[in-house]
Amino acid sequence: MTLGLAAASAMLVACNQTPNNNTAANVETAAGSPDIVYVNSDSLLANYDYFKDVRDRLQTKAEQKEKDLRAQAESFQKEVQRFQQNAAGMSQQQAESTQQRLMQKQQQLQALQQSSGNELVSEESEEMKKIYDRVEEYLKQLSNEEGYKMVLTYQRGNSAILYGDSTLDITEQVVAALNKTYESEKAETATEKKEEKK
């Protein structure tokens, strides 16, 4: 299970503040700022350090879980092979008991595989919500500062926006601000960890 850009982009729905009746015409505010701007969600996610860290962490976790499950499956397969080799020398009761134990173990492995997959999906969903919340919070703040009435999301090949003037694209500004905030948070967390070790 990996955190893909396509799945993540789908989560970044437009952060819409209540538009007035003139927003469709994209009338500029008195200060000269446009009412409507957009963010390229592909670029945002590709360049947002927090998203990249989350994606890498979840990918590493998924690979480790897959490795553990594969090791358990191989161990189980060896047990089955040993049973098949030794079955002829077993009593009927021993054979039936071993078969039952192996069946239970197989069911446990399948359940573990299922729960492991569900856990990763759930964690990915939670992390995407956090990313969405961070972006939404910043866009609300930016809209208040700049007077934007609506911030749209643009994704090449999957967007309601067929064309947008590049002057309305605030992606770089958003990415830079989000990364700056995230860097501060990481530095603060690192400082706190150092303090705890003392």
UniProtKB/TrEMBL annotation:
GO terms (BP aspect): protein stabilization
Composition bias, Polar residues: 85-98
GO molecular function, one term: unfolded protein binding
Gene3D superfamilies: Skp domain (3.30.910.20)
Any single Gene Ontology cellular-component annotation: cytosol
Domain of life: Bacteria
InterPro entries: Chaperone_Skp (IPR005632), Skp_dom_sf (IPR024930)
Biased segments, Low complexity type: 99-114
Keywords, in A-Z order: Signal
Keyword Signal attributed: yes
Pfam families according to UniProt: OmpH
Region (Disordered): 85-125
Family note: Belongs to the Skp family.
PANTHER family membership: CHAPERONE PROTEIN SKP
Protein name: Outer membrane chaperone Skp
Organism encoding this protein: Pontibacter actiniarum
